[in-house]
Amino acid sequence: MSDDVAKPAPGDASPSEGEPRLPGVGAKDDHGFFGQPRALANIFGVEMWERFSFYGMQGILLLYLYYSASEGGLGMEQSTAAGIVGAYGGAVYLSTVLGAWIADRLFGSERVLFWSAVVIMLGHIALALLPGFWGVGVGLILVALGSGGLKANATAVVGTLYRPDDPRRDAGFSLFYLGINLGAFLGPLLTGLLQSNLGFHWGFGLAAVGMAIGLIQYSFGRRRIPDVAREVPNPLPRDRRIIAAVIAAVAIVLIGVGVLLGLITADNLVTLVIAGTVIAAIAYFAVILTSQRITSLERSRVYGFIPLFITSVGFWSLYQQQFTVLTIYSDEQLDRHILGWEMPVPWVQAINPIFIIILSGVFAALWTKLGTRQPSTPVKFAVGTIVMGVAFLLFLPFADGGKNSTPLLWMVLILFTFTVAELLLSPVGLSVATKLAPAIFRTQMVALFFLSIALGTSIAGLLAEFYTSVNEATYFGVLGAIAIAIGASLFLAVRPVLALMRGVR
């Protein structure tokens, strides 16, 4: 968050000469949205509709890729289709790094948020209107870039609505988190319903409409956003902007040439994304650890983050299979019949957001009650990864079954376990990244956590390729055991990891 001086908003009392303008100033007496600043409603709305469009599209994407032409799909091999979905998911989180950089160095968070929403809408329009693989290629690239930019900056913009000492801050972020999960819940339900009754492109079109609604309502409320959200914290010097533009142009040309020469294909796309993410993560760690501007204490804490990073990768490589393996499994083996009516496949992805909405408050109350007695971050990471492994083992009783062989209630149990695992690891991930970050590398450490999600998501796509070639008992059993082993290893190493973290729990 920027500490730069912001311009007074109309009607605000001007700060005294020389007094810094704090984020959220002027919002102290604004309680127009459930006791929160009215601007939160607009950010809540754009994030809710973005998640609606994102999860709505993702709920039908894999099916669109591997369903036959007679079913309205593109007829791809399941393994290749799953790899594309994994590579796309990884690219979204890679784009958060780019979105944060553009905001910090060029345009400010609020502007990047707005134009990212525009790019997302255009991506969904491309999926809805452009035929075949052209629509997929153009649409997914635009949605990935836009979602990364919006995801990286929406939280920062919410933070500017409050003074640092505003007691409403945590409640405001809880409302914001509710918006995310409302969108994630409603998106697959409605796009899945349209896809089942009218076709895939109607579902993609609804995702575009949802993003358009979010963008329109946000546009009307942009004037309420504090000016500090539009400031550029670390402006890129004008002479270096040309260099950055040249690098971006060269990268685009190289990617285009790679596609035209057949070096980048649908079959190897996920592998290339994994390789790029690994290189980026190693480079980030190297830059931070070799910097002469950090103290020995800060360097130790960065080393302490490495086992958490590795564990996070292992966790997300299983968790993100909700959008690959779980979709195929639900399509082919899950009994989705309820009183004679067959539930659309994408509706399965709406189960997890319901549990998140219900359980996030339970976990928050639990950690608050335990206070200083709550488990340390490494313990939460370890247990979350072990629980994720257990979730995969829960597939074993019905593995390799035929059509309608898995009861819907059993899938609900599996997704409940997914959610418990997520709430043990995901909410504390960004928090611990900021706690362990050296003062001059706070943004980069947050980017590293996003890179762990990007890498795990891409690996989830690669692993899904094996799902179609080995028996399910082996697949779920081996991956579940590996996740449990990773979590157990971190659990056994809690003391040395905490020693490296130097007082951060």
From TrEMBL:
Q: One GO cellular component from the entry?
A: plasma membrane
Question: What keywords does the record list, in alphabetical order?
Answer: Cell membrane, Membrane, Transmembrane, Transmembrane helix, Transport
At the top level, the lineage of the source is Bacteria
How does the entry describe its membrane topology? Multi-pass membrane protein
> Which CDD domains has this protein been placed in?
MFS_DtpA_like
What GO terms describe the biological role, i.e. biological process, of this protein? oligopeptide transport
Where do transmembrane segments lie in this chain?
Answer: 52-69, 81-103, 112-134, 140-162, 174-194, 200-221, 242-264, 270-290, 302-319, 347-367, 379-396, 408-433, 445-467, 473-498
Protein location? Cell membrane; Membrane
- Whether Cell inner membrane counts among this entry's keywords is no
Kindly list the GO molecular function terms attached to this UniProt entry. Answer: peptide transmembrane transporter activity
Family listed: Belongs to the major facilitator superfamily. Proton-dependent oligopeptide transporter (POT/PTR) (TC 2.A.17) family.
Q: Which PANTHER family match?
A: PROTON-DEPENDENT OLIGOPEPTIDE FAMILY TRANSPORT PROTEIN (PTHR23517:SF15), RESISTANCE PROTEIN MDTM, PUTATIVE-RELATED-RELATED (PTHR23517)
- What's the name of the protein? MFS transporter
Q: What is the lineage of its organism?
A: Bacteria, Bacillati, Actinomycetota, Actinomycetes, Micrococcales
